[in-house]
Amino acid sequence: MSGFQWAPAPAQQQPQEQEQSSSAMAVAALFLSLVFCLPILPLVAIVLAIVVLVSGRGGRGMAVAALVLAPLALIPSVLLLTSDAFDNAADEFREGFNSGLRGPEATRDASGEISARSQVGVDNLEIGDCVLRMQMLEDLPPGEQPLGEVTAIPCDEQHKSEVFHFYDLDPTGFENQKALDRQAVKGCLPAFQEYVGVPHRRSTLEIIFYSPVVDQPGFAPDRVTCLASTPAGLTDTMLAGSKR
Q: What is the CA radius of gyration of the chain?
């Protein structure tokens, strides 16, 4: 007995069914050509219309109409992509995305000063902001990544540090993190004297900073955040202009 099994050949589609299928495709093409809000649908309409015309069966009139209307439906999308509205929408999306990466915002009053103790993303700090505590690497469990947040408070309360300068530093040109950190603190020095009132070498204050990460370019921010800090204890007076 042969191992092959006989099966009937599939029935050929009848001409009437072919006409109906072509007409249905033409209707779909015409409908999709009228959809302005989704650019992909007029493109699908063009493909369907071409298939109908090539087949030479029913629905040719609707297919021709779809080919005329579909490009018109694409015009609003083209204008949007080339307009300022699209650029603005893209900027808003990027800003929202970056805000999520920057962490929580500070609680500020109408003048922009921090008005209540809050956890703040380092990239949301502003010059003159006062910080009670920064997240230190030695405080973290082994292998855990820092959140890049600080405890910010009103400056008339006991605080440890004050933000005095920001600048950008590309982390890709450094051999290791120590080299980058040395450059980071050098970039803070000129602004320290302007903020505190004395050069750092004559000051009793320390410079602490947040810097980019050498082995994470593009993930960690490129901004260096410079803070003047009391070496021991806290202060309830501003370090700005203190000449300490």
A: 33
